[in-house]
Amino acid sequence: MRLKISHRTEYRYDAPLQYALQRLRLFPRTCKTQTVHSWSLAVEGAGEEVRYVDHFDNDTRLVSNQGESTLIGIDAWGEVETFDTAGVVGENRGFAPLWLFEQQTPLTAAGGGVRELAGSIGEGSELDRLHKLSGAVGACVAYTAGATHAGTTAEEALNQGSGVCQDHAHVFAAAARLMGFPARYVSGYLMMDDAIEQAASHAWAEAYVKGLGWVAFDASNGISPDERYVRVAIGRDYRDAMPVTGIRHGWAEERLAVSVSVEQ
After folding, report:
1. Where in the numbering of this chain does the Transglutaminase-like domain appear (predicted)?
2. What is the percentage of the chain residues whose pLDDT exceeds 70?
3. pLDDT tens digits, one per residue of 33-84
4. Given Cys at both, which of 38, 91, 113, 175 links 213, Cβ 3.0 to 4.6 Å?
């Protein structure tokens, strides 16, 4: 399947910024599940300082504001051909070793709820247990837009029983690590069946299975990602794979707007 994607992130300020530095992880890379045919990035109100591939193998750009800007607009767009591999991504790439993905992070630290969830998964093959975990996460954390925020932990989302795709990925990763699997967070795009325009990008998780490598699980939709998914960035949790993150100096009030479109 060939997907056309457009993603705009816009920051508006009520006063000129003294300084802002943004880290962008908005460039998908060709891998087993996808071929990037074209991709472009344009930034308004800021200029590129440096680009590099980070230790998770993410294409990363740093941009800083130019002059006293009241608007920073970031547009990413392109076409990606995708393949249904039943969620199998393959062997580990990048400089980050597998053991790094076995460690807890502040967003995925396991409390009593995550430990109980991981302990409830019965016997079976590694793949069977991971599919059961994905289903259990979706059942325990109802998808509810606006129920959580960027700093919500896996334990908090599980305890309140609601969240969004970010929370599903965090809960899955936290429990999978307790079960002995390296696990990681994935940010990217999903072509939805009923809508082209979306309010945000998507997220899911991957676990490492011996003999297969990384295998993807989208607990939000109860499936392993197929040809409707485009992988962009990975990390131990959301903070490692955020599409846009940064710092700013000044007293300006910030307003953020994000729009995403994904279509065949």
Report:
1. 157-221
2. 100
3. 999 999 999 999 999 999 999 999 999 999 999 777 899 999 999 999 999 9
4. 91
Say whether both 234 and 248 belong to one domain: no
62 and 121 inside one domain: no
Collapsed DSSP state (helix, strand, coil) of residue 32: coil
Strand segments, DSSP code E, in 113-172 are: 142-143, 162-163
Tokens at 138, concatenated: 């979706």
Q: What does pTM read for this prediction?
A: 0.95
Domains of the chain: total: 2
Residues 190 and 253 in one domain: no
Q: Report the C-alpha gap between 40 and 106 in whole angstroms.
A: 33
Residue of 167, 177, 169 whose CA lies nearest to 231: 169
Asked if 210 and 121 sit in the same domain, the reply is: yes
In a 3-state reduction of DSSP, which class is residue 142? strand
Radius of gyration of the chain (CA): 18
Same structural domain, 119 and 203:
yes
Dmax (CA) for the chain in angstroms is 60
Q: Do 201 and 232 form a contact (C-beta atoms < 8 A)?
A: yes
Contact 133, 175 (CB under 8 A): yes
User: Which residue, among 100, 78, 62, 96, has the nearest Cα to 29 in the 3D structure?
Assistant: 78
